[in-house]
Amino acid sequence: MIKPVIKWSGSKRSQSSKIKSFFPTSFGTYFEPFIGGGSMLYAVSPEKSICGDICKPLIDLWKEIRDNPDQLADGYSERWNRLQEEGYTAYYNIRDDFNANKSPYDLMFLSRTCVNGLIRFNDKGEFNNSLHYSRPGINPESLRAIIKDWSEHIQGSEFFADDYIVTTNSAKSGDVVYLDPPYFHTKGRYFGTIDYERFLEYLDDLNGRGIKYLLSFDGKRGEADYTVDLPKELYKRHEFLPSGNSTFKKVIDGETEKVFESLYMNY
Ligand SMILES: C[S@@+](CC[C@H](N)C(=O)[O-])C[C@H]1O[C@@H](n2cnc3c(N)ncnc32)[C@H](O)[C@@H]1O
Description:
Adenine-specific Methyltransferase, domain 2, seven-stranded mixed β-sheet, alpha/beta, elongated, 2 domains, two-stranded antiparallel ribbon, binds S-adenosylmethionine
């Protein structure tokens, strides 16, 4: 499986090669307006892509991975060494720095040393996860190799801190858009929430513009079926993809359950 450079909740890492198999064989520009940890971007590795996310610190980090991989790896190494020498105060000082200045260098470090590697912000946009005491954080040279590998994969990608509608404004017939919005029924688990009606109008608009889309959407989780029925006229194909186990569930009650994700396509 792909080694993530940015660990992100809701990552499509375990499903990315399956989802990729449903992509059209050829297309123009690739758009991914809910980029998160970018697992589909890596799996598809398009020559040219336009990516976005409403979370600005995340987008700033993507730009550093693309443009300054070695400096970013050096920045991690310096902070990681500080943590080994000074202990937990280094982590909390760096977290304060991040919340004051939003430096992607601090975010890279926090994401690799916080509890379960979960990037988490409070309502004020402050990073609020704690230090993972029992783990040292990934070794700097291992992370450097991952950053450099991803950097090579995303040289043809542009990143925008914008709403999904804005990010895909320039898409045209022949282009493809992969959509992985936050779950509509679990408000607040991700950064930002999105309005369902506005999202349906958006899909209708993509159809009208002749743009192909693939949409990962609320699926079936264990016994409970959380499927939100997408209006039939908006898509042509609906698949259920097994996606491994729900780590979210595992954390809560110590057991795993099968998770299915919906994939809708308008072609
Ligand atoms: C399910 S996650 C995407 C995960 C990604 N596919 C991966 O593999 O890591 C959804 C993303 O949508 C972003 N988001 C929420 N509201 C948004 C909006 N209105 N426009 C663009 N992105 C938004 C969140 O910040 C989050 O990164």
